[in-house]
Amino acid sequence: MDITIRQAMPDEYETLGEITAQAYLGDGLLDFGESDWYLGELRDVAKRAAAADVLIAVEHDRVLGGVTFVPSGGPMADISGPDEAEIRMLAVAPEARGRGVGEALVRACVDQARATPGCVRIVLSTQRAMHSAHRIYERLGFTRTPERDWNPIPHLNDISLLAYELEL
Fold it and tell me: What is the H or E stretch that residue 155 is in?
């Protein structure tokens, strides 16, 4: 596996946005499919990159996937506090799955959290159906923190995100 993890460059934002959107759509993770408001957020890598660190996995200049790393409760944070980093929007292109790309991206986030002064843990939210991602998180030592589970759309009772954390 000759995969490099690095910061996304502006000319790669559109590609990563489409990989992320298609991963969520293809896996049935958007409750409202093509009309889901979150699809626009998934595609807007420039917005994420302005507020957080967007890491990508590349192989021979081909983007395979990416993740958003939110250091110490930054503006893109959903559940993290001031002494925590957060992982968001992990996605791997379907043709690159099963090759360790997702795990490499999560490991890069853990390394970045460890290098962030004052950061004591890294947290993330995940959907119940993201079983492959759960296996990655658990393999890397993340533990479920049910007390941090939350609903991003409170008026819809059936949407609940599971929380995980890793003490650094």
Answer: none
